[in-house]
Amino acid sequence: MSRRPNILFILSDQHSQKIAGCYGDALSPTPNIDRIAARGVTFDNAYCASPICTPSRMSLLTGRWPHKQSCWTLEDQLASDLPTYAHALGAAGYSTILAGRLHSIGPDQLHGFDERVSGDCSPNWLGAGRQDLGMLAGTQGPSAPGPSGSEIPAVSITASGRGQSGYEVVDDVTMEAACAELERLGAEHAAGSTQPFCMSVGFLLPHCPFVARNEDFDLFDGRVGPPEIKRPAPEKEHPWLVSWRRYSGSEAAGIDDIIRARTAYYGLVHAMDRKIGYVLAVLEAAGLADNTLVIYASDHGEQIGERDLWWKNTFYEESVKVPLVMAWPGHVPTGVRNQRIVNLNDVGATMIEAASAPPLPRSDARSLLAIAGDPDAEWTDETFSEYVTDLSSLWTGPEATCQRMVRMGRYKYVHIDGYRPQLFDLESDPEEAVDLGEAPAYEEVRRRCADRVLDGWDPQAIRREVDLRCAEKAVLRAWGANTQPVSTHQVSITADDSWLDSQR
């Protein structure tokens, strides 16, 4: 039996699938991710379990859809007794190490990892002090909408350009810690250790603020154009999306702000990719690369102004699709593109199979190893994603929403509770310009998709549970604000206001 592989899993935050050379971007901002793709398999139809951070990441850990683990929003805690892929690998004798971002709320900041060598930017507790971004406060996303809707553009778009985000400072710490740990592991293996390891490296970039250091911004300055996909006329667009865009202020941004923010985003992608390059170089120098399964993915996408939409929060491809590439010398073919419909959740099941670890009993995830080696292997081309909010945070919008998407073959169907559905034929309409949610000719397709998306998923029951949890979180938030408990694994960050000087 061959030696079990080491595993290096790199997970970024808010990386749009199409902003990568291996996915066809002509500006090629990701040479190191492209190297992984060239040595392995690129999954073209990978989706996340939720188009926001925490539920997507917690689903990745457990392999369960958000509604099966009661973790829907950025402020929901994942129960510590739910087994994760880290638990499974540890049970199989692996050393499990986490460097950087986990984005978990609550006292459990390990969720099965043996060791955490660097931390996150956010506190463990609701109500506790948030990270200080200085002059960039409110630029993390749709967190500061204008009181009169679209009349005021979102600050995360206008406060963009050259400078330094505190998030990148955290990523520098993560990169250094991951490299030091790989050097240590390499020395141990060279000295005769046979214990395999799984290291998860979590980067914050390219998450907004849309502020990139000079050298990275300048690489793309003048080369990044305006968004390519126009938004539909208001009378043809889904009313929930019209309301969300207006609330978030994304439709009010001027073209100079849009191009500057998009340029900075490219710079952030490139900066993140460079840090990945350092990690990969240390893996190779430590003599570990030949027996290591390397996987890169992101927790969700970024819309960067397409259809006058930014951030995530929707089921458009730019938001819900993720980059996913993996390489494993001698076990995964090289330079292959895979068109099967998969989910970020499947990464956990893939690592578990590669490690010969015990499967998670109630996981919805499927290992990718069979279809990586044979794209014609048995596989159901179907996956789901969920977006459920409450009214505990400004970023959620003017109303709480309960949405679920199913991708079935060529069709994407979106249930938005209280509204008409959306339906897109991605084969004939990859830009999702034509919503077939009310087209008479697609009634049977909608029925089949609706039956599937609602199977075991009750939006009314979910709404009742989410609202009850919202009331409970209000108590926890008040407790955190009054007691200010100490957060563990939190990296202090420093933001730079130099973006202001360069843009004014």
Can you offer a commentary on this structure?
By secondary structure, the chain is an alpha/beta fold. The protein has one domain (6-377): Alkaline Phosphatase, subunit A (3-Layer(aba) Sandwich). It is 33% helix and 15% strand. The chain has 15 helices and 14 strands. The strands form three sheets. The protein has an eight-stranded mixed beta sheet, with helices on both faces. A four-stranded antiparallel beta sheet has the order 11-12-13-14, covered by helices on one side. Strands 5-7 form a two-stranded parallel ribbon. A hairpin with a 5-residue loop joins strand 13 (411-416) and strand 14. The longest helix has 31 residues, at 255-285. The radius of gyration is 22 Å and the shape is globular. It starts with 5 loop residues before the first strand and ends with a helix. 53% of the residues are buried. Residues 5-355 form the Sulfatase N-terminal domain. Pfam families: Sulfatase. Keywords: Hydrolase, Metal-binding.
Oligomer, anyone? single chain
Largest sheet: 8 strands, mixed
CATH architectural label: 3-Layer(aba) Sandwich
N-to-C SSE string, H for helix and E for strand: EHEHHHEEHEHEEHHHEHEEHHEEEEHHH
- Quantity of strands, as a count: 14
**Which ranges are low-confidence, i.e. pLDDT below 50, for 5 or more consecutive residues?**
none
What order do the helices and strands come in, and which of them pair?
Elements: E1 6-12, H1 31-38, E2 41-47, H2 53-62, H3 66-69, H4 85-91, E3 95-100, E4 115-118, H5 155-158, E5 161-162, H6 166-190, E6 197-202, E7 211-212, H7 214-220, H8 239-248, H9 255-285, E8 292-298, H10 317-320, E9 324-327, E10 336-343, H11 346-354, H12 369-373, E11 382-388, E12 402-408, E13 411-416, E14 422-425, H13 443-453, H14 459-483, H15 498-503
Parallel strand pairs: 1-6, 1-8, 2-10, 3-4, 3-6, 5-7
Antiparallel strand pairs: 2-9, 8-9, 11-12, 12-13, 13-14
Helix pairs in contact: 6-9, 7-9
